[in-house]
Specification:
Layout lengths: L3 H15 L3 E7 L12 H5 L6 E5 L2 E6 L2 E6 L5 E5 L9 E9 L2 E8 L6 E6 L7 H4 L20 H8 L6 H6 L9 H11 L13 H19 L40 E5 L2 E5 L6
Antiparallel strand pairs: 1-6, 2-3, 3-4, 4-8, 5-7, 6-7, 9-10
The chain binds a DNA duplex (16 and 16 nucleotides) through α1 and α6.
DNA sequence: CTCCTGACCTGAGTGC
DNA sequence: TGCACTCAGGTCAGGA
């Protein structure tokens, strides 16, 4: 499911119920997702008080007691929040009950494909964690989270593009270059910027690069404002859909007319993933 | 190094 | 109805 806007939507829903809340119990229903779950996850959570909920790239960071619980939703992960103990659904792997100012909430992680993961690291080791250390800058900063000191700008983008021989599509999916983009928003940003996904990254410069930066930032901001994009699995934690699906210009629109020029949208495979684009508008 | 492929896993959709 | 096959918001190891 989730790229940056979907993860941001989940994080934003967790903030008010988890920040400052005490964990009443945690139920871990299987030993692993993509990786083995930390064996001390249950004992870490139970009785602890959550100090903050943040996001870096596509990872949700839940802090307590000098530790960071890292939650990645993979392709199909989602979170439900309710004010009563929820009925168990297939693939509900973790259930956490929290209490804050006398108010109880239940938080459930569901992940059919189990490409997601949870890890737990001491605060001092966090920046060296292999999922964190190599990440590129955040493409956008939302209400100072993540901290705006590491946000993509045109100087960084131009430098990173230099000498990158991969297609711009692959470049933008690479979390070491820019963190948080995925298949939907790369396709959409390239369409907005008028750049072909097949173009070599190093050849994106000057005016093209100057269009790419705001194209990425605008599409992410707009998607976050709509609660993300619901295709199959993604729902907001309150059960609502992500309405940005209605704003997609190319993703999933193979054969349908380009909204700018009527040319049918093309789908090609690039490094195993579908790229949707307009061969006229994107050069 | 960089770049690409295949693997991981389940469920939904399609075509015969 | 059933079966085989393809495809899906993401990484990650391994090979060229």
């Amino acid at each position: 499911m989730p790229e940056l806007p979907e993860v941001e939507t989940v994080k934003a829903a967790l903030v008010p119920v988890m920040t400052g809340a005490k964990v009443r119990y945690a139920e871990i229903r299987r030993p692993d997702l993509r990786f083995p779950l930390p064996t001390n996850l249950k004992s870490f959570l139970e009785g602890g008080t959550i100090t903050s909920v943040k996001r870096r790239a596509k990872i949700i960071l839940i802090r307590a007691a000098n530790h960071v619980m890292m939650l990645h939703l993979g392709m199909s992960g989602s979170v439900r929040i309710s004010d009563h103990k929820p009925n168990s659904q297939p693939h509900d792997h973790v259930e956490i009950a929290v209490e804050k100012q006398g108010q109880s909430h239940w938080i459930v992680l569901n992940d059919p494909r189990r490409f997601g993961y949870i890890d737990l690291v001491h605060e001092r080791d966090f920046n060296n964690h292999k999922s964190i250390a190599a990440l590129g800058p955040e493409p956008v900063s939302i209400a100072d989270d993540p901290e705006p000191d590491n946000v993509l700008d045109i100087a960084y983008l131009n430098k990173a593009l230099e000498g990158a021989k991969a297609p711009i599509k692959s470049f933008l999916l690479d979390q070491r270059q820019i963190a948080g983009l995925g298949n939907i928003y790369v396709c959409e940003a390239l369409h907005r910027a008028g750049i072909s996904p097949k173009r070599k990254a190093y050849s994106v410069k000057g005016k093209r690069a100057a269009r790419l930066l705001p194209a990425i930032q605008d599409v992410l901001h707009e998607a976050i404002g709509q609660g993300g994009t619901s295709l199959r699995d993604h729902k907001q934690p309150d059960g609502k859909l992500g309405y940005f699906v209605q704003s997609l210009k190319v993703y999933g629109r193979e054969g349908e007319p380009c909204l700018a020029c009527d040319t049918p949208i093309i789908s090609i495979k690039q490094s195993g993933r579908a790229s949707f684009y307009c061969s006229i508008c994107q050069r």
